[in-house]
């Protein structure tokens, strides 16, 4: 039986290839294919349903059902047995379809006389393209061999659908050309801004142009050679790690080696080849099955292991096709980078030539978001399924303000988008005219505006933006972009170069803020249920004193006798700050004994990112030379709303009366001890929020360079004393947020 199935499958695939090779329209090809399958499998019916949009399947060809139902019968995903196959991405096999769960009768098809039903998904790398169905009058349950053979045929259909083999010249919807229609993706905002350009894929998809083989023996040989090459590369990576390698990295590669040597994985691909698939198609068929399983596995560990297998399959495909990660595609003039996810080192390799970034995954606190903010380029995260739709060179619009991406936009959408970009450009010209003027309000209140940075490439913005200094220099990026711990001398040189580029303006260096979502490549990841509230930032520094000591020494030496300002992140209690401060002063003493130049002035501060620190003893505020409110973390902890969770992070308003009252308390405590206070974070760069912080008594704000112009413009137009009165009145009225009152005031004064 198995030999007959293999022979029949190869024969069917051979006939399929002949049909596909014929110069005919897409509908004619589909009609021939349904006839071939029904004839080969001995069934009364064969039907092909393809997706016309993300939620709707359409009957596109049939042998045995009413031909008038073609392109007329449609169903939603999950509707009927066909919709059930599409939703579950698994086969449905039943001898009695009318009594099966989810059955829906379609009278226009004439299918009431057919009892048995077998449906398999037509899918490519986890993307559902349609459903392939066979039916018979007799109540039969299709054998495992028949199910398997139909899945092999579905794999070929998926590849040919992707290659456009079933497109009608006048077709649209399910029969329209793929990758040609406008598509809207809704994700999350990683970095504000709007940009127009062309798609540039970080990892271009592998194209399998010939899914059917002539010679199974030759395909088996090619597969074995590719697997041998894959195993050798994994072994080489393991051997290159050496004895002192990170245990987690070793574990990942050990998992790779386990999968690469898995007989069951290889055997499934060999069986696919024996049924008539090429080696590439066999790998991709198994990869599609893996991705379908990944979506259903709730266990994070198992999902990660399936991800390892998916990655191995991708490596194997690139070996077989010779399509490396560099396909020779030229970077377009205005590149918008599209990726599943991307590390900081890979992103920095692209440089500032990118006009925007779109990620299928990612988070607002990710490395990519940090770099995108530093470069002031739009970033949209969690744009699901964009990798299955986008092709290199496709026109694309990225709206980082709304977290929206328009792929292959219609002309009217593109025109409206260009108007938005033009308005932003006009606003930037207006901001440039006040670049060298102070952020002084109508009533004479001046606010110091500083910029955030983390890369040497950010420093030119210090002059062009009109910032008075660097209120936050993130030092973790120098650690995150390397495979090993950077040397002290290397860090000292970087810190010195940063101060050189600042040309005498103050730079506040924040010590290493790692942990949470910022895990060093060479640091063992911590299995924490809530890493944002776990072992991170100052907690890591105080536990790993060697690393903190090395960084403090590098900062002192980088200053080379100039004034130095250092800030410790994520301080939750007074003792943590006092301990870190003592460690810094100890390093100053050691450097003095070694005869090294000491900073001409030293300021030691803390980031107030936890509500607990606002209630610290008075001695903390007296001991700190300055305090910077880390608004991003403080807000999420104040409202108990995870800023990585799109369901809740926008739920709570920064201008909420409770939050502003809390900010006012911090301002008052700092005023009592004459401790300089600033606000640092995304909200500091939003003009309305910035004006309100100034009205609450904040004398300094730190933000991304691109925000300084809009914030300065807002403050220079506003009477801060009047705004404070509006805020106080709103707070006393019982309102939940002062935003409506503030916006009403700004509108009445024609301030924008």
List keywords for this structure.
elongated; 26 helices; 4 domains; Enzyme I, Chain A, domain 2; Beta-Lactamase; single chain; disordered N terminus
Kindly describe this structure.
The chain is built from 26 helices and 23 strands. With 752 residues, it is α/β, with parallel strands linked by helices. The chain has 4 domains: 2-169, Beta-Lactamase; 183-204 and 327-424, Glucose Oxidase, domain 1; 216-321, PtsI, HPr-binding domain (Enzyme I, Chain A, domain 2, Orthogonal Bundle), CATH 1.10.274.10; 447-703, Phosphoenolpyruvate-binding domains (TIM Barrel). Strands 7-14-13-9-10-11-12-8 form an 8-stranded mixed sheet.
- The pLDDT mean sits at 84
User: In CATH, what is the homologous superfamily of the largest domain?
Assistant: Phosphoenolpyruvate-binding domains
Radius of gyration computed on alpha carbons: 31 Å
What helical percentage do the residues reach?
A: 40-55%
Largest sheet: 8 strands, mixed
How many extended strands? 23
Helix/strand/pairing category: alpha/beta
CATH class of the largest domain: Alpha Beta
Q: Which spans have pLDDT < 50 for at least 5 consecutive residues? A: 1-5
Taken from the alpha-carbon principal axes, the silhouette is elongated
Strand residue percentage: 15-25%
Q: How many domain units?
A: 4
| CATH topology title of the largest domain | TIM Barrel
Strand order of the largest sheet: 7-14-13-9-10-11-12-8
CATH architecture assignment name of the largest domain = Alpha-Beta Barrel
State the end-to-end distance: 77 Å
Our count of helices gives 26
């Amino acid at each position: 039986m198995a030999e007959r199935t293999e022979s029949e499958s190869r024969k069917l695939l051979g006939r399929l290839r002949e049909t596909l090779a014929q110069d005919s329209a897409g509908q004619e090809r589909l009609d021939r294919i349904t006839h071939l399958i029904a004839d080969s499998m001995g069934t009364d019916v064969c039907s092909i349903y393809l997706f016309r949009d993300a939620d709707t399947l359409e009957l596109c060809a049939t042998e045995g059902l009413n031909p008038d139902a073609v392109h007329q019968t449609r169903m939603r995903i999950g509707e009927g047995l066909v919709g059930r196959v599409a939703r579950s991405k698994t086969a449905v096999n039943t001898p009695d379809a009318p009594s099966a769960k989810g059955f829906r009768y379609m009278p226009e098809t004439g299918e009431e006389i057919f009892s048995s039903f077998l449906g398999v998904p037509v899918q490519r790398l986890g993307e559902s393209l349609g459903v392939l169905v066979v039916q018979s009058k007799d109540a039969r349950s299709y054998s495992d061999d028949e199910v398997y053979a139909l899945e092999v045929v579905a794999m070929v259909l998926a590849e040919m659908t992707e290659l456009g083999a079933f497109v009608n010249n006048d077709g649209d919807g399910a029969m329209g050309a793929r990758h040609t229609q406008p598509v809207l993706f809704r994700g999350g905002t990683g970095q504000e801004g709007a940009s127009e350009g062309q798609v540039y894929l970080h990892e271009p998809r592998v194209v399998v142009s010939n899914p059917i083989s002539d010679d199974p023996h030759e395909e088996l040989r090619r597969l074995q050679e590719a697997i041998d090459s894959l195993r050798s590369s994994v072994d080489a990576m393991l051997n290159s790690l050496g004895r002192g390698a990170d245990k987690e990295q070793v574990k990942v590669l050990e998992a790779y080696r386990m999968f690469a040597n898995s007989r069951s994985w290889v055997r499934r691909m060999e069986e696919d080849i024996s049924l008539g698939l090429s080696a590439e198609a066999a790998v991709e068929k198994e990869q599609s099955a893996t991705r379908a399983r990944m979506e259903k596995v709730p266990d994070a560990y198992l999902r990660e292991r399936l991800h390892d297998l998916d990655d191995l399959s991708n490596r194997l495909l690139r070996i077989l096709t010779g399509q490396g990660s560099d396909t020779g595609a030229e970077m377009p003039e205005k590149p918008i980078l599209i990726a599943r996810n991307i590390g900081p080192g890979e992103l920095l390799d692209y440089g500032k030539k990118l006009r925007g970034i779109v990620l299928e995954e990612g988070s607002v606190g990710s490395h990519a978001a940090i770099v995108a903010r530093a470069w002031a380029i739009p970033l949209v995260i969690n744009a699901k399924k964009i990798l299955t739709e986008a092709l290199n060179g496709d026109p694309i619009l990225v709206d980082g303000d709304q977290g929206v991406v328009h792929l292959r936009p219609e002309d009217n959408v593109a025109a409206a988008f260009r108007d938005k970009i033009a308005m932003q450009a006009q606003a930037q010209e207006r901001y440039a005219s006040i670049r060298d003027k102070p952020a002084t309000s109508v009533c004479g209140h001046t606010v110091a505006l500083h910029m955030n940075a983390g890369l040497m490439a950010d420093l030119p913005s210090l002059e062009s933006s009109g910032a008075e200094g660097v209120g936050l220099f993130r030092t973790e990026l120098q650690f995150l972009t390397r495979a090993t711990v950077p040397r002290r001398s290397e860090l000292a040189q970087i810190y010195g170069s940063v101060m050189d580029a600042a040309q005498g303006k103050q730079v506040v260096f924040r010590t290493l803020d790692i942990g949470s979502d910022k895990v060093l490549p060479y640091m063992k990841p911590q299995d924490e249920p809530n890493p944002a509230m776990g072992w991170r930032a100052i907690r890591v520094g105080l536990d790993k004193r060697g690393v903190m000591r090395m960084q403090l020494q590098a900062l002192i030496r980088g200053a080379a006798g100039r004034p130095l300002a250092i800030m410790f992140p994520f301080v939750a209690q007074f003792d943590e700050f006092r301990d870190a401060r003592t460690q810094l002063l100890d390093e100053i003493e050691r450097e003095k004994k070694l005869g090294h130049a000491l900073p001409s002035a030293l300021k030691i501060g803390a980031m107030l990112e936890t509500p607990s620190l606002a209630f610290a003893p008075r001695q903390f505020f007296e001991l700190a030379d300055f305090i910077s409110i880390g608004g991003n973390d403080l807000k999420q902890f104040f409202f108990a709303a995870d800023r990585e969770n799109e369901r809740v992070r926008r739920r709570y308003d920064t201008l909420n009366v409770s939050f502003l009252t809390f900010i006012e308390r911090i301002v008052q405590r700092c005023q009592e001890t004459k401790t300089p206070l600033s606000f640092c974070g995304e909200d500091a760069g939003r003009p309305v929020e910035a004006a309100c912080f100034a009205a609450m008594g904040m004398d300094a704000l730190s933000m991304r360079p691109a925000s300084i112009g809009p914030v300065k413009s807002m403050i220079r137009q506003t009477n801060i004393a009047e705004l404070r009165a509006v805020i106080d009145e709103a707070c006393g009225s019982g309102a939940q947020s002062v935003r409506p009152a503030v916006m009403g005031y700004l509108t009445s004064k024609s301030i924008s």
